[in-house]
Amino acid sequence: MSADVLNDRESNAKRAKLSENSNEALDLRSQQEEEVTIHRKADLNLSAIKFVRILNDSPLNKSVFVEGLYNGEKVVIIFEKTPFSEASVKQLLERGDNSLKQHFHNDIYGDYTTFPNPELNGLKTTIIHPATEKHIEKYSAQQLFLIEESAEDYANITLPYIESTPLSIDWVYNILEHKSETDRIIFEDPDPELGFILLPDLKWNGQQTNDLYLVAICHKRNIKSLRDLNQQHLPLLRNIQKKGTEAISKKYDLKPSELRIYVHYQPSFYHLHIHFTALFDAPGSRVERAHLLSTIINNIELYGDYYQKSRLTFAVRKNDALFAKFEELKKFDT
Amino acid sequence: MSADVLNDRESNAKRAKLSENSNEALDLRSQQEEEVTIHRKADLNLSAIKFVRILNDSPLNKSVFVEGLYNGEKVVIIFEKTPFSEASVKQLLERGDNSLKQHFHNDIYGDYTTFPNPELNGLKTTIIHPATEKHIEKYSAQQLFLIEESAEDYANITLPYIESTPLSIDWVYNILEHKSETDRIIFEDPDPELGFILLPDLKWNGQQTNDLYLVAICHKRNIKSLRDLNQQHLPLLRNIQKKGTEAISKKYDLKPSELRIYVHYQPSFYHLHIHFTALFDAPGSRVERAHLLSTIINNIELYGDYYQKSRLTFAVRKNDALFAKFEELKKFDT
To answer: Which catalysed reactions does the entry list for this protein (chains A, B) (predicted)?
Structure first.
């Protein structure tokens, strides 16, 4: 199972939108947030969460998605082991208190387990509470399919689907309005037409640049996705490309040629945002989901209506509402 | 560091060349093993090994390759974090002695670090001692950069580079002429203009379809890469798309929507070939190297000279000859 389409908090919001009583659910969540959300509990211990089941896991990434219960409510926990840094490796070698166990050796090769001190070996932990059935569904393993979407398919299937789903991307507006995560902002250009906020993606722990992952969220609010982009957006796209790379170069000492800059189609939420990652195997950077900003600018410069005319191929999970729409409205080869 | 450009049969051949003097080195190692190898030391502690440098690391896999010194001799250490199991997750939740630190929360999402007890969070550790220069080279990273190649760059830099490099793709012609790997052919259309041979890629063991990986090599010999493709090639591309997916559906029971079909730019050899993979995290399927066949056909249908006019972004390793050419002939931001 590809991790490419699994790992975004954005999708949670999108899926929450699909829930039948979404307004009610949202009200309920806000109320609960004030009162009983796990995130406000002092001295939270994991033993307060009851294990229910493994939803999915990625042995390659060393991550696991877990369903749990907290005070009778659903919780999703994502554990992910963290990458090494030079500093953490140096400490592993220099501190004499890490125990080492040999399993076998053969000629020059020896196989061991090291048991580092906890502070050298933390687990990145994301907790979603209260979680809905949609969150559980999102993080469960699901088969993927590719859909080739024509301009007509977009008009007849995808766009009505997007417009019929009540928006619930408050967390995006919280960021844009400086109500949340203000201290996480790396760079902001406040211009309402060309501006954006750049901040670390939740998938990145911010410690080492070899898996750097930032997201630029544009201030302009009416751009749903790649499909909306045309010549009038070139100044915005070029501004994000230029100022985003400058900010990253200044803060993290990575040059533009050391960055993969791209958007997703389908995105996990329909407000234009651009991913900036180091050249590691980032989730969502495969060809069926990622579109390089350099390619987007090239395409629009050459052909202003490229994204209105083109067929675009993307991956959907079998349980996605959009997959069901394509199956329902169009002869589809699955 | 991305594995995407490291994993091809070409590279294997290159690596094999590096081990020409390995017999001599092996004799030496056996002798040393009897005497001073680290693996025979009782109560080995990592602090006995002096840190020299990080050779390579994989943030995706959470692994790192380290050069060290032990008694004045070179050591390579490979640390790799281990996947989660249901048992380890249950213990993480059930044991009350794992500390948890909150970094921030926003609505229902909270970001934490868990510090598990060491015995729940061991590191797989491989130690190679004594290590030779060949080991150091084998485990060293080569930095990747993205290059945005304009039509002029292609004409002035890339094309002369391709044409000046002595071709050594006899193995491709051996396949096309039925001199090698004949028994591996899954499907052949022998037409000299539209035809191709479909066979498993070396990276696939042919056993299970969740990591299916096949390659279609076209019979026509004058198509170097994506840059050469135009309207006259649409029949060839559509033929490979149609007959390739039919053959895979028949033999492996995977539908077209369960396949990622793409070419590489830059390719690892300059004779048109098309990758067919299942929707797993295949090496070389990231956006900076892979171009979906569906997108290529779309682009050429809409704009016949798309690949002659466009800027194309691709990844190169620092030691690649093509990287050197771009550095030499063009102002480059590294």
So the answer is: a 5'-end (N(7)-methyl 5'-triphosphoguanosine)-ribonucleoside in mRNA + H2O = N(7)-methyl-GMP + a 5'-end diphospho-ribonucleoside in mRNA + 2 H(+)
